[in-house]
Amino acid sequence: xxxxxxxxxxxxxxxxxxxxIGFDSTYTERGAHKFEYKNIKIYSLTPPQANxxxxxxxxxxxxxxxxxxxxxxxxxxxxxxxxGSISQLKKIAQKLSFQPFxxxxxxxxIEDFLLPQKQCRTQIVGILNLTPDSFSDGGEFLDYDKAKExxxxxxxxxxxxxxxxxxxxxxxxxxxxxxxxxxxxLPILKFAKENGINVPxxxxxxxxxxxxxxxxxxxxxxxxxxxxxxxxxxxDVAAKYGVKVVIQHSKGEPQTMQDNPQYDCLMxxxxxxxxxxxxxxxxxxxxxxxxxVDPGIGFGKTRENNFEILRRIEELxxxxxxxxxxxxxxxxxxxxxxxNEMKDIFxxxxxxxxxxxxxxxxxxxxxxxxxxLLEVFRV
Length: 379
Hints:
By secondary structure, this protein is of the alpha/beta class. Helices cover 40% and strands 15% of the residues. The chain folds into 3 domains: 1-32, no CATH class; 39-113, Ribosomal Protein S8, Chain: A, domain 1; 123-377, Dihydropteroate synthase-like (TIM Barrel, Alpha-Beta Barrel). Strand 4 (123-129), helix 6 and strand 5 form a beta-alpha-beta unit. The two termini are 44 Å apart.
């Protein structure tokens, strides 16, 4: 009996694989779509919508999973999972354009999901904590001279952005007044301006007052761990000055967020909450291209939650915004007694997954180590 050789193909470049076996070169790109698959979750369809979607999927050889009571119409809404090759999904989208119940719009959104994958150059966001109580380096850079030296060090080490914060939002931390934050941050912004440092500066704050003062001194990004919820004026400030804003997912306030956080469906809840925040930001006048989302590693998450986010981070691409991930030295490493140097090594190891999954920004304490990591990936 002949011993056949089989191997599963794991690649995002099926066109090249087809070319290697002598596939028709005039049809390679289109042919590749028959071998590239996606599973898309679609939320809250009515029974008629879900039934039509399922039948349309079956008509092209794809499939669609719905709630078991969709066929009886005993439920008002059903989430659906549509799965098939890119080629099949395009056909489904086209067929939906002729269907009632608003399904033409759904077809257009499915087509948007099938656009070519983004080309991503992961950028390094260096962390400068001007706080006495940050979880990994609290107090280390509270002194102005040490702070400016570390700022310059990260610039020289190749940071793409430097994120400055003067309020710790670690678990069980307490709020810091806007005045105190401004007093700590502005001298560093002035130092950067006086020395002609052009590396963009982000401000890690929940305060609209702090954000506005820092923007006027040259900051170009706001990193709000509350996702525009803590200060009702934050979205207005970001829209007014046209700066980038990082909208993070958090569950609860820093004082309580790690008190037994629970989720029914982690990635769904993060995705839908971030979608809600994006819609709010757009309504306030913030441009879509200025919005960055962050799933909030360690902000109301268990260690298991954090690793699930890391494994499934690509799912957030469906929000249509760039993605930031901040896991540097955090508790998911499970290394409370190790040195920061050791934590940085394991942080870099985990961030290889972020880079492989095309995360746009990685927020880190150790800039030179991650600079070397990205150099390896860019060979």
